[in-house]
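Budget justification, computational time. The allocation requested in the original proposal was used primarily to generate structure tokens for proteins on the priority list. As evidence of use, we reproduce two of the resulting records. The first is shown immediately below.
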Amino acid sequence: MASEYVSVSNLRFLLFDVLASPQLNRLGLYQDYDQEAYELALDAAKDIGDQFLFPIYREMDKNKAYHQDGVVHVHPGLKAAIKAIAEGGWIAAPDDFEHGGQQMPLSLLNACIFIFYAANANAAAHAFLTQGAANLIRSFGDAGLQKTYIPPMYAGDWQGTMALTEPQAGSSLSDITTTAVLTTEGHYKLKGQKIYISGGDHSAVDNVVHLMLARIKGAPEGAKGISLFVVPKYRQENGKLVSNDVTTSGIFGKMGQKGYVAAQLMIGEKDDCQGYLVGAPHRGLPQMFQMMNEARIATGLMATGTASGAYYASLQYAKERPQGRHPSNKDTGQQQVLIIEHADVRRMLLFQKAIVEGSLGLLLQCCYYADLARATEDKEAREQAHLLLELLTPIAKSYPAEMGTLAVSTGMQVLGGAGYCDDFPLEQYYRDIRVNAIYEGTTGIHGLDLLGRKVMMADGKAATLFLREVQTTIKEAMKMPALDPFGRQLTAAAMGLHQTTMHLVELAMKEAPEIFLADATLYLEYFGIIAIGWQWLKQAIAAEKALAGAERETEAFYRSKLAAFQYFFEYELPKTEGIRQRLHSSNRVTLETLPEWIL
């Protein structure tokens, strides 16, 4: 297995040179986080990845989780991994000091979480799913719920989940049927079924705390009648944990992530499942969207982390595997060259690097906006950061998931036949990453969200702010002779996106929503390419500045950055032209093809 899975140097470059994230310490909430604090946090995260996560990545796949005699058994190393993350303060990290947290900037926290995901997303996901659930309780739960549930979740003793999906209601949450009936004791009795619940039950923790959506008896129909509940596997009675009538009927046999279970839960079969209302009744869906949006960024990080592990595995192989000779050399008596000497192999490696490091740039950019939205006292800056984060979230989730899958597939191609065999990790990375395009809403759902909601949000202000951010970067690039042509190229591509957006908005005013939204997924892809192009231009600016004064040992890093940047602009950015042509076409083949014609 490859000895490396992530570049901490790249994280430092993005945080310090591109985003200047330590300057967030000018905001009172983050005043303790100077560059030294960032360095210490990154090193601490890498140590946990090296010691507790990466060593069991392949073992968790080969010795997969299983359900037997009512118990979900997982790899024994998972418990130690969760505890190491918890004891390092990472689950509690974003919370306030007064609640035992570290008030850590999200841009730093998620850079460190990226290290964990690159080392072993299947293990690390347990801890950060718990983090999201605890944050939801902190945001909307009463003092009693916070006191009872958050400390053992922060300690890594209890697992948190989000329990939404039901057999008859996938992404259509307005159709859930799990019921809640208020009792005279003040709690609710819940009854129903939940499926595909990640981390929904396992032997590495003492209890599982489900943040569950259900419908209170007599509630309004649809989304307006959904409430949010804390539903533990075990409830506390007289200081002891007793069964809460939440049972696991089985776990799903997933394509990948064999050590990260997806459970099927039966709730209240004995009419003894107690649930505790979080916040006001019928406000469950808006509340749950806090955790879902956090999980969407996390899904993008997970996909990018997995693609990072695959990239470094394929890069190592390419530097060690001799095969063939250059096309100009026909002398079979001469030694074979390492495959990285072949231009097409370098193309594949540059593709992987461009996707991984471009995606990570966008994700950390989103986290930076989240930090501003959380901590700045400037009302206008806070609103703008919030709008940009909302607009970019569906892209930050979907682009790394979709393109990361292609990147890992390309990594398998670098290895050739070896990549398809389980002697090497690429086939596991490929199986593991595929689910990220499905987690927290399929890519199609996010296309609908972007085009149907986000670009029109605040009368189009979010989209305008995004284009302004891109233009600011372009103007800076065009002051540098080496980057001027690329700035002009991105200007044309961004203008094409704006024109396409206007075209689709006009279509929405004239035609039925089905016509406007038919190719929303393509629009998401288009927007994603522009967003990653913007991030690569930002990285190129920083690399050019650093290269001028770089020492010999660091020069290769910046040259590598500029090579991946040029690759993206040469190979990926031009793809927008084909997408733009399709989005402007009046041919409505998907709408006009009848279901019975698809045979």
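The second record produced under the same allocation is shown here.
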Amino acid sequence: MAQDKTVIIGQSLHRIDAVGKVTGETAYPGDINLPGQLWMKLRFSDRAHARVTAIDTRAAEAVPGVVRIFTAPDVPHNEYGLVTKDQPVLCGPGSNSQIVGADVVRCYMDCVAVVVAETEAIAAQAARLIEIGYEDLPTVFDPHAAMADGAPQLHANRPNNILCHYRIRMGEMDVGWAQADVIVEGEYHTGYQEHAYLQPEAGVGYIDEQGRVTVIVAGQWVHEDQEQIAHALGLPEEQVRVIYPAIGGAFGGREDMSVQIVLGLAAQVLRRPVKIVWSREESILYHHKRHPVWVKARWGATREGKLVAAEATVIGDAGPYNYTSAKVLGNANLCVTGPYEIPNIHVDTFGVLTNNTPTGAFRGFGGPQGAFAAEGQMNKLAEALAIDPVELRARNVFHEGSILSVGTPLPAGVSMPEVVDAAALECGWTRGAGGWQREKVAQPDHPALRRGIGFAAGYKNIGFSFGFPEQSWATIELYGDREIEKVVLRQGGAEVGQGAHTVFMQMAAEAVGVPMEKVHLIGHDTAETMTSGSASASRLTFMAGNAIKGAGAKALELWQHEERPAIATYQYRPPKTTPYDPETGRSEPNFAYGYVAQAVEVEVDIETGHVRLVRVISANDVGTAINPQMVRSQIEGAVVQAAGYAVMENLVSVEGKIRNPYLSTYLIPTVLDVPDEVKSVILEYPDPIGPWGARGMAEMPFLPLSAAITAAVRDATGVWFDSIPLTPERVVAGLREHGIGIL
């Protein structure tokens, strides 16, 4: 019997996890305890770069209650890494590893030993008693210095410490510069950013009823965690099980390993449950950060406001290991020339190894760093040409059929002009015969306060890039007799707080035409689901949605042929992408994009240097809003997180050591720092290959905010700031250099 069509897509349904989370009933990894469990603590490196010559555990082992201490020889395959297995699980002599120099610590985040004891306090006490012998090695903390001949080398197979080097060569630069009537140059610098998710790293390892090494942890891709644990332990993947309970935020910070492998190791050897919970200090010290990036840029335009040439050199500090740096810098390489048609482009982008803390994925994945430079250049060109910044963008933004810097056209569904127009209109710009323009912002009465408005735009990939294999699986099971009474959805995509599981269920209900109440989700468990790929790259709605839609169609076909239960599995594979050509950069980098434009009004106190966000307009093309309220939540959350990145989050690293690993000294936005108004302008131009037309959008509202803020500060004070964060100290210093702020 055919089902009545129930429209679920486009409804702001309540999140399925809301009640449990706000009442405290929902269990996160740190809340889970198992009978007879032991406790774990990790002993990290005391050096930024040194060879571990000896590890003396005798005093630690003598502490009553210590059960086992693990060191490098205890790890069957002592290596891991999301993209390249280039980091030892435990650094020290006697490693079973393909890594040359697995006995070398290359940063303070490297782990040397693991203590398992009857209580957490005993494990912590014993970890402190481990004596480690070091042979100090030369260090390098400046990525520019690390690239120089003669610099200390972190890995033998990475000459000049260059992890990756991407080139873009399009057009003829001599021709472009000859056509340019105005040329602007700039140097831009972005700092570290700490993910600061609500739930620090925690987990439990044990042996399940089928004898599998099982790890309950928070992450972003259960099947990738499974692969890395299995590799390090020398086990078949089917002998390792990974389960995610509730996850208290991620933002890219859980893509790489933290406690997963060592929990699996301890459980495998000891055959008892083992638990670990990091403190906030440990979390800040020992997981990766957003890349600090330095950009030198030179752009040229005609007097009519047409871009003709752009050059950039991008250098990103990768720390000592790859993590996702090669991918992050690849994305920065693409984004550093912005969402604009430029016929002549020359870009060199380097990921550089140093003895600083490792860096990796963080919301935007290289896009915010690239956009900060690109949009800074656009705003400076607009000023030099005396053309309104929105008008300059309108004359140059990508359109349908535009050619990217890598020499291939954008996928269909380009909406860059529409998001620029929408953001401008919402913030008071008007379009007349001479193009876009706006009135000057009204100034406060207080003599120390100045107000200004800035504008910026951006675009970013949806899904994995540059030839990385992309797929997502879903299974839908239909139960009932004449009518579908129950729908079981199996989908492994991670719910990291963004509302993905609610959206999965909405899409499953829509796919088979039942109310959402009939849908039951099984996810976050490698034993129950097939791979969905990572909760990253703004990809889950797009990728999981297409898999769910395909599985639903197949299940309905079986149902109509009276198969009971009707069970169908579907794998979605998007159009293929290709890597950069090593000489020219030519590629088909991505199969879909999201587009965003933002206008920001700020208030600057010229005495104290405090920058307050008054109003943020964020226009985002989401293709189709599966759940509009959650789209607004993503926009507002991204704006607040990007505001922290732009104006206050200042992680201090001195010779590789983080000096402010506390939320009392590393400041993130609180409710008092949220802009007075965040207006989410949701545009719906369906993506041709998105599920129900949906695009991913979680990262896009983060991308342009920093550049919009610095443009607004320029509008308010007349001073350009090309380094973020705009801490009061930095702003005061910049204003005083220009004689501003002495009342």
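A brief technical remark on that second record: The chain has a mean pLDDT of 97.
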